[in-house]
Specification:
The complex is a heterodimer of chains A (402) and B (400).
Chain A: H1 16-24, H2 26-30, H3 37-44, H4 52-67, H5 70-76, H6 78-81, H7 87-90, H8 98-111, H9 115-132, E1 143-148, E2 168-170, E3 173-174, H10 178-192, E4 199-203, E5 215-218, H11 223-237, H12 244-253, H13 267-279, H14 287-301, E6 306-310, H15 320-325, H16 335-354, E7 363-368, E8 374-377, E9 385-387, E10 391-392, H17 393-401
Parallel strand pairs in A: 1-6, 1-7, 2-9, 3-10, 4-5, 4-6
Antiparallel strand pairs in A: 2-8, 7-8
Chain B: H1 9-19, H2 22-41, E1 44-45, H3 59-64, E2 66-71, H4 91-97, E3 101-108, H5 115-124, H6 143-151, E4 158-161, E5 185-187, H7 189-196, H8 230-235, H9 239-246, H10 252-266, E6 271-275, H11 287-310, E7 318-323, H12 347-350, E8 351-358, E9 365-367, E10 371-372, H13 376-384
Parallel strand pairs in B: 1-9, 2-6, 2-7, 3-9, 3-10, 4-5, 4-6
Antiparallel strand pairs in B: 3-8, 7-8
């Protein structure tokens, strides 16, 4: 089936809000090339479980598409229309299973050497869309905080190497009550600017506190979900005919209830957490990977005003099948390796924050937990500089956000 | 400092890179490697040497010529290797190998960026499109088949040492015009150790790390893999000795290098292909493990080169080629997650390097001219005197 054959009643299987949205926009969908449309439908079909920032982005994109004339549609999607797809792809149920279509389309584009052309087309479309849709003003500049090195007594090698060129390194930070001061500040921001999913606390271990003002995600709290997922994976791989691609497809279909999450939870956040483990690589076994990937996905999807991530020691490396079998109740930890992981994770945190609206005004702090080293990237502070000023974390935050 | 002057160098750099086309970005990556190597190792620009080939074309030289190919373990990026901030991770390559080598700064892979399919493409000189996660042979003849059929070499003269995730079929293609029997023997050291350790109480788990791209699935072994009893017949190694030595090693790639050196000692193959894979632990997202693996791979490459100098059958007659099958995603590409994967197909994940050292190679020279990973097979053919008839790659003139 081609997009021009699309009818409104084909969205009957979509969740309520997604169905409404699809039906209203079916005429715009009919004009889009097959190489593009399932990618859009993959977002639309999840609309009911998206964060507000994602819903707003979909709304704007659909409004823009509906406003384009046929000539403009041709112009905007010319590069996508040039891509050649197989008849097998055309016969897939891309309306109801757009994610599976995308997976197979991606494999097809790789094998037919069209992936680069697709990437160019997608990047150009994204740039064009960003220029066309209205931009909202943030109520407060974004703030990112990464706390790294939990459990490390001393570390001689330089930290924050990738970030130093972008900010100011502080060598005399008073560590007392550091985490509490940071969490207090994050909570204060959340209370001053109460936006749904606007302020996050991600912990790679046991959360230091649970604040109702924040969106809380922790590795420790997700243990039942992880255990259920690993059991599911072990069962699936024992099935005849199962392969890596089949497993990935199966995982993509999992819902919170499949992994033991109760229905009285936060449906949006529960789905988000399931995706962290079913789509993330290594999140199931390494807490540092979990913390980094959660931060990335929260920034990409929820676009919070504030995100504090605290990394915790991960387990030592073992053979992958042993890690996945999850048989050891008290695995040996690797604090130094985890600090190195987290140092890079903090860099990626900043990079992902810089991809969002308001990057020029945003601030970022990374602190070596329990120690005197920190680094701040902020509009008010010089880049590639060092400060020996003594201050506590509250003072550093004030400096970063002033 | 005012806001305008502080408006995110990263964003500016990202935009600057995005405004360039992939070819320009690849060129910039290559230039960076070249500048660094020139500063660090005092290497000369290659264009000055063109037309004065040191390779000896005499038939007698070709008969004695041995070629060892090492694929550099699962893809590593510049910032963790050749860029100034990465040099701490490759002391052996910088200090020992690069001064002796011709270094190609711009090797691109235009094929599918999965490790088995990309290594198969390297071995056939054609961008293969087979399923990366299946134990299937390449569609086109391999370098081993060209070598053995054209030169009439015995089966003992071409060997592959590889990780056990499907690579067992890489020694011989499914191409009918070549038919069975001209491929390389393949050793999967982890498979071998797993078989040898069956029933043993000793813990070899650290040497049996699985495929990192698909950790749960190692395809069923099938084809001409090395049998356990041949440990003794070919490698002159008892199962007990093998297992005792394995206890002293710390990673699967160390095990592979141990087997490769044993093969060199006992079989002296003229064409030896070693696929290292530890670096691909990056897929787990743990940066420290990825960097540890780069350092180990750096050390293992130097260790193998040292073995070449110490083996009479290899000393003076061997050309060693070291190259990654591809790179990893750039930090700047929002479609990826930096070092963790090689999924975006961006220039950083497609553009790598190659180092050639040993017999016939001009030491201390850097070549910026772009080559493709599929150019390897016809170039090896020219070195050894066989024709890679179905390869779609081109001769690397700087090696001829």
């Amino acid at each position: 089936m081609q997009p021009h054959d699309l009818q409104a009643d084909q969205f009957v299987g979509y969740p309520p809000e997604a169905r409404k949205l699809a039906v209203v926009n079916v005429k715009a969908f009919q004009q889009l090339p097959l190489s593009f449309l399932p990618g859009l439908l993959r977002e639309v079909i999840e609309y009911d479980y998206k964060f507000p920032a994602e819903q707003a982005a979909i709304d704007k994109e659909l409004t823009n598409l509906s406003s384009l004339s046929p000539l403009q549609i041709t112009e905007w999607f010319h590069a996508f229309a040039q891509l050649s797809l197989s008849s097998k792809l055309e016969h897939l149920d891309w309306v109801n299973r757009p994610a599976q279509f995308i997976e197979q389309e991606s494999a097809y584009l790789w094998t037919t050497h069209q992936l680069d052309a697709f990437s160019v087309a997608a990047t150009a479309y994204g740039d064009r869309l960003r220029a066309a849709v209205p931009v909202d003003k943030l109520p407060v500049p974004r703030l990112g905080i990464a706390v790294i090195g939990q459990g490390v007594a001393s570390y001689a090698s330089p930290l924050f190497r990738d970030l130093r060129a972008h900010g100011t390194y502080f060598s005399q930070i008073k560590a007392e009550n550091g985490l509490d001061l940071l969490l207090d500040a994050v909570e204060d921001r959340a209370k001053a600017h109460p936006i749904p999913y606007g302020h996050w606390y991600v912990d790679g271990g046991q959360a230091a506190r649970q604040s109702p003002a924040l969106t809380n995600v922790s590795y420790a709290a997700s243990q039942p979900v992880r255990d259920n997922l690993l059991k599911y994976m072990q069962t699936e791989i024992a099935r005849p005919g199962m392969g890596p691609e089949e497993l990935r497809t199966d995982l993509a279909r999992l819902l919170p209830a499949d992994l033991g999450m109760t229905k009285d939870g936060d449906a949006v956040l529960d789905r988000f957490q399931v995706r962290l483990f079913t789509e993330g690589s290594g999140t199931q076994i390494f807490s540092t990977t979990f913390a980094q990937w959660t931060t990335r996905e929260a920034l990409r999807r929820a676009q919070p005003l504030t995100l504090l991530v605290r990394f915790a020691p991960r387990q030592r490396q073992k053979p992958m099948n042993e890690l996945l079998s999850n048989t050891s109740p008290n695995p040996e930890l690797d604090p130094i390796g985890s600090l190195v992981d987290a140092d890079m994770g903090a860099y990626y945190h900043w990079i992902n924050q810089q991809r969002l609206l308001g990057a020029e005004q945003s601030s970022f702090i990374v602190w070596f937990e329990g120690h005197s080293q920190a680094l701040v990237v902020a509009p008010s502070l010089p880049r590639g500089a060092q400060s020996d000023s003594a201050m506590d974390l509250k003072g550093l935050l004030s400096l970063a956000t002033s | 400092m005012g806001q305008s002057s502080h408006s995110g160098t990263f964003e500016a750099k990202s935009k600057e890179m995005r405004d360039l086309n992939p070819r320009e970005i690849a060129w910039r990556l290559a230039r960076t490697r070249r500048e660094f190597l020139r500063d660090a190792a005092g290497m000369a620009a290659g264009t000055a040497f063109m037309g004065a080939s040191p390779f000896v074309h005499a038939a007698t030289a070709k008969k004695k010529r041995k070629v060892i190919v090492i694929t550099f373990g699962g893809g590593a990026r510049d910032q963790e290797t050749f860029a100034p901030e990465g040099q701490i991770n490759i002391p052996h390559m910088l200090g020992d190998l690069i001064p002796q080598s011709s270094f190609f700064t711009q090797v691109t892979n235009h094929g599918i960026l999965g490790h088995y399919v990309a290594t198969a493409s390297l071995a056939t000189g054609v961008y293969e499109t087979l399923n990366n996660f299946s134990a299937v042979p390449p569609d086109h003849p391999t370098v081993f088949e060209y070598f053995r059929k054209d030169l009439g070499r015995p089966v003992s003269d071409a060997w592959v040492v590889a990780p056990s995730n499907g690579f067992n079929r890489i020694g011989e293609s499914g191409c009918r015009s070549y038919g069975p029997g001209f491929g390389a023997r393949v050793i999967l050291p982890k498979h071998l150790l797993s078989a040898a350790a069956s029933g043993s109480k000793a813990d070899y788990s650290h040497l049996l790390h699985d495929n990192y791209e698909t950790p749960l699935y190692a395809p069923q072994i099938g084809g001409g893999e090395f049998e356990l009893q041949q440990l003794d017949q070919i490698l002159k190694l008892s199962v007990n000795d093998f297992m005792e030595h394995a206890k002293t090693l710390s990673s699967p790639d160390e095990l592979s290098v141990f087997i490769a050196k044993r093969l060199m000692r006992q079989e002296s193959p003229s064409l030896l292909w070693l696929t290292l894979h530890d670096i691909d632990v990056a897929h787990s997202g743990a940066f420290s493990l990825y960097v540890d693996a780069i350092r180990r791979t750096d050390r293992l490459c130097a260790e193998l080169w040292k073995a070449v100098q110490e083996e009479p059958e290899y000393m003076g007659d061997t050309t060693l080629l070291i190259l990654p099958d591809f790179g990893r995603d750039a930090d700047q590409d929002s479609g990826g997650n930096g070092f963790q994967h090689h999924r975006t197909g961006d220039p950083a994940s497609r553009t790598t390097w190659m180092m050639a050292l040993g017999a016939g190679v001009r030491p201390g020279v850097v070549y910026d001219s772009p080559v493709q990973s599929i150019d390897l097979v016809p170039s090896i053919g020219a070195m050894m005197g066989f024709s890679a008839a179905q390869s779609q790659g081109r001769l690397i003139r700087e090696l001829l």
